[in-house]
Amino acid sequence: MAPPKGGYAPDLDKFLDTLKSRPVDASVEFLISLLKRRQIRGSESCAIATAHILLQVVAKDKWSDVDQLIGRVQLVGRKLVTAQPHELVIGNIVKRVLGLIRDEASEDRNDTGSDSPTDRTPTLPPAIEPIPLSKQTRLPSLVALGSFARTQSMFNLLSDPDFVPSPGSTPKLGSGASTPQGYPQSTNIHALRSEVIDGIEEIMDEIRQVDEQVQAYAEIVIHPGDYVLVHQPSRTVQKFLLRAASKRKFTVFLVVDPSAASTEDDPYSSLRKSLSSSGSTVVNIMNVGLMAYMSKVNKVILGARAITKKGGVIVDSGAAVIARAAREQGRTVIVLGGVYKLSPDSRFHHEGLVEWGDPSKYVNFADGEMVGQVRVRNAIAEFIPTDLVNTYITNL
Amino acid sequence: VSKGPVPVVPAEPKFTIPECFSHLSMAKRIPITQADKDVHPTVLALGQQMATFTIDESITRLKATLLAFKKVINSYTTPPGNTLARHLTPHVLNPQIDYLTACRPMCFSMGNAIRWLKLQVSKIDPDVPEAEAKKQLCSSIDTFIQERISMADLVITEKTSEKIQNHDVILTFGRSTLVEQVLLQAYTIAQRKFTVIVLDDPYERKGQTLAKNLTAAGLRVSYCGDFGGLRYYLQSVTKVIVAAESMFNNGSMYARSGTCDLAIAAKQLDLPVIVLCETVNITERVSTDSLTYNEIDPERSSSASFRLLYDTTPDKYLSLIISELGTVQPTSVPDLLRKLEESN
């Protein structure tokens, strides 16, 4: 366990600062402990942290062939995923990096490495596209797709990177050296290394650009005079609202975290200030059941923690009841989330699977009668089934 | 009409209610000095208790109001040249009612009872001596409390606790004294073996009191502080029991905000949603959404935030209404009203 530096709890920035100065293994252990202790939390932070650590693995680790690298990335990835299984984005990033490596390696093999991809960053499509759910069936592996596979595409994201047709390489945990040679010994490890590093940096760029790209749809979605309900808005959702507010006036019903609402300072005061300066209104709603407001609300905008294979959305606890109310009242539910949050994971199909957290949120530990006798539960994330969602807006 | 210098305190609320909710009413603390001079001291105190939500449940407010009015009537003497039947209501009762309404908007049960009380006053024969008339009024208030509140609660508790079976998992929302009575009776008297999940509103946390009272009696209780993971909890639940603040004539239920969301989630899983409601809470009005009748929470609303106290649950999400006059489907609420009229 890495000790916290400077006497206060480490977070993402702290972790990124220390990355360069530490050996890779120490950084991996550090990240694992940060994830376990939820000191790095939220899908964006987790995704960025994962990308950074994998970059270190690729850049600093000693590896002599592709299989070794893949094995190493898989090992680290698996550790990270186990450390925080509720953050599906960690697995997504690991899978994308694995795909990237396989992609580059197969390009190498097919000797098409010269045409380095130029169309990596996809341009914005003209309209909002729902996630192509019909195309989520297990696709042939990247190897089979050959050099035309693009890691950034949705196909590859949702394909299973662990599924490699025999006699392809399936390195087991930490046994990278002993696996059969699926990929040819790359003549130029250095070239591959820098290709992969470039690829990972592109992934990081993509994560950073998500908010901006998602924002572009704001004017299409939010109309003048709308009543928009948001639940504990993430930065993505906040920026989305701000963009719309720059063009038109509307009212935002902002559902706050009840435990934070008891304190005096409003965590969304800056959002309120910028929105009201452009003429829109923000009302913090201090209710947990939102059906009372639904007759007034035009649309509900939710930020996704992750989106599963079948379109279910993992959200902050409290959002599912909003989505259900909106559905009952026939209101539009819009989910915002970068493509990197799309997960091929299907463990979460079981409705109502919930991430549990600190029960002291509402019940004080000093309250002996409650602590001793009553079973107290507190959800921090929950699941919205596909049928409660109308539209997904991603950066693709 | 108040006389003498009255300190000028701005009557405006300290924040602006969002335009779209400006039609809704809100409790406010009126300084006792600002109250009409005709307001009886008991009523003055009661108004403060209501404005601060110390007395909160519809039925408790009703009972407290009736008892206070008994005191008002007892301390009343008809001025010479007037009759009780014509003087009491406009000159004595109305100022009390206005004051109580200003402290906190009346609940439907209070409206019903006050209408009934005014009718009783108007029916008093002018020839009856004053002492006799006052005694009559007080005894009919006692009967009203006895029949419509105490007996009603007793009957509802009895009927509902019979509906609880062994191995049931009962989910309830917040704390209602009636639901608490039902659960305690089913456990201690009817000897049913069941467990309870208390779902709570994180802003009020009254469910914690319920959870403590139930565990003190020996029941097994789980507690959830908010609506996160609601669907998960409901998967193990067999019955949802809630208490209504009021029932509308079209079968909709007026209850603590959040009850509607709970009922929707329960209905999706085909769980029975059982509503407890004394008939005195039933109103002849009709409401289809939550913004027709509602109340703004004065405690937790500020310049930046807003909170509604109630919501309206359409009848399609409810299964049974248990009242002292019978157990009916939500669509048959008008039948209960008709029964009431017949019995009067």
Features:
heterodimer, A: 396 residues, 2 domains, four-stranded antiparallel β-sheet, 15 helices, disordered N terminus, B: 344 residues, seven-stranded mixed β-sheet, three-stranded antiparallel β-sheet
Would you identify the CATH architecture of the largest domain in chain B?
3-Layer(aba) Sandwich
> How many strands, what sense, and barrel or not for the largest sheet of chain B?
7 strands, mixed
Ranges of chain B where pLDDT stays below 50 over 5 or more residues in a row are 1-12
Average pLDDT of chain B works out at: 92
Number of strands of chain B: 13
User: Which oligomeric form is depicted?
Assistant: heterodimer
Strand line-up of the largest beta sheet of chain A: 3-2-1-4-7-11
Beta-strand portion of chain A reads 5-15%
Helix content of chain B: 40-55%
Structural class of chain A: alpha/beta
Region (Disordered) (chain A): 105-131, 166-186
Biased composition (Polar residues) (chain A): 176-186
Pfam families (chain A): IF-2B
InterPro entries (chain A): eIF2B_beta_subunit, IF-2B-related, IF_2B-like_C, NagB/RpiA_transferase-like
Explain how this protein is built.
Chain A folds into two domains: 5-210, no CATH class; 216-393, Rossmann fold. Chain A is built from 15 helices and eleven strands. Chain A has helices at residues 12-19, 24-36, 43-60, 66-83, 88-109, 142-145, 154-158, 189-215, 218-221, 235-245, 258-261, 269-277, 291-294, 319-329, 368-373; strands at 227-231, 251-255, 281-285, 299-303, 306-307, 313-316, 332-336, 355-356, 375-377, 379-384, 391-393. In chain A, the strands form two sheets. Chain A has a six-stranded parallel β-sheet with strand order 3-2-1-4-7-11. In chain A, strands 5-6-10-8 form a four-stranded antiparallel β-sheet. Chain A is globular, with a radius of gyration of 22 Å. With 344 residues, chain B is an alpha/beta fold. Chain B folds into two domains: 24-152, Four Helix Bundle (Hemerythrin (Met), subunit A); 155-343, Translation initiation factor eif-2b, domain 2 (Rossmann fold, 3-Layer(aba) Sandwich). In chain B, the strands form three sheets. Chain B has a seven-stranded mixed β-sheet with strand order 4-3-2-5-8-12-13. At the A-B interface, α11, β3, α13, α14 and α15 of A face α7, β4, α8, α9 and β10 of B. Chain A: Residues 176-186 have a biased composition (Polar residues).
